[in-house]
Fold this protein.
Amino acid sequence: MDFAPTEEQQAILAMAREVGAEHIAPHARAWEAAGTIPRDLWPKLAALGFGGLCVSEAAGGAGLGRLEATLVFEGLAMACPSVAAFLSIHNMCATMLDRHGTAEQKARLLAPAVRMETILSYCLTEPGSGSDAAALRTRAERTNDGWRLTGTKAFISGGGYSDAYVVMARTGAEGPGGISALIVEAGAPGLSFGALEDKMGWRSQPTRQVQLDGCAVGAGALLGAEGAGFRLAMEGLDGGRLNIAACSLGGAQAALERTRAYMAERMAFGRTLDRFQALQFRLAEMEIEIEAARVFLRQAAWKLDRGAPDATKACAMAKAFVTEAGSRIADQCLQLHGGYGYLADYGIEKIVRDLRVHRILEGTNEIMRLIVARSMIGGRE
Ligand SMILES: Cc1cc2nc3c(=O)[nH]c(=O)nc-3n(C[C@H](O)[C@H](O)[C@H](O)COP(=O)(O)OP(=O)(O)OC[C@H]3O[C@@H](n4cnc5c(N)ncnc54)[C@H](O)[C@@H]3O)c2cc1C
């Protein structure tokens, strides 16, 4: 057992952190106010391989493992969890295309996505089905020259912004086995979008409903085998959950570093805050928690990289633990800033807001516990 990151892994984390500090952090608040991330950011990240971190080198990706990918998201999230998480969803879709796409889909859709000339979105949730995703109702019916999709996808990150949407739709009977994955490209007839959702955090990312009203796509839109869509969607989420957890870790780390610096300067009762032992203990508790979260996340990534039989359970455990630790730490950091923590200029309140949704999406943390419990008691209700 070796817990030391390799030189390459250390360099990946340092590079992501530097890139985030240079290209993302100075603009994060302005992008939040604008409600969008400028497209010219993406090619800069793609030049470093961030457009297809776990995409095979044969398909133009960086060919990194899951562990290395989490280091990238941890580093970028130190600058802005919202931007890092948006990139993580694009990467999840790119990996799905790499694993299951045909040669034609890879050439037409994956290659520009890896270069980040195009952005990908993931469409599973519907207004009537979130946690119970296998109950989705969006239908895709075969036509003479392809498929026609009808239904509504809710809460789609990148809705109306992205260039292609990986849509899970029902092509067969009820239940998970009747679901297929189809790629719907922007501009497809019958594709439209709801209003911009007004959110607590992740405000730089556009979130909208994706509406499919008899939306026509070609026969080449099917990703993987017919009926395999739910499996593909869940497989994608194993890695996605690690990346969301890494975004919480990076956000919490940034909050903690700011707080340590703040406490060394802020005076109260004739000394700096970091001279009070009660507050030193709070710092120490956060350090213990963040380090435990980091080790746990990296172990889960290591298991997914090795295809361990309990990898799905490990990813679910890490997602729940790290996102909850991240939120607790960010909230404590806000508290230790006193009233200033509540002000946008100090950079903590945005982290608190951005991290909150990590406990809800890519499977709520209740669903993470369901996955863990099922693995313990063998799928009984
Ligand atoms: C900002 C944002 C961005 C998002 N981006 C995307 C995206 O890009 N693509 C996408 O497909 N989805 C996206 N989502 C949707 C997200 O994945 C869902 O909101 C999430 O899965 C929960 O579904 P729901 O909101 O319908 O809640 P529900 O499923 O209605 O759950 C409500 C509550 O009940 C709990 N609950 C439900 N079932 C159980 C159970 N069996 N046992 C115990 N507790 C249970 C849940 O944990 C939750 O607390 C996004 C959501 C948000 C907020």
The chain has a mean pLDDT of 97. The chain has three domains: 7-119, 121-225, 230-377. The radius of gyration is 21 Å. Residues 89, 121-125, 130-131, 155-157, 199, 202, 207, 357, 360-364, 366-367, 370 surround flavin-adenine dinucleotide (CB under 6 Å).
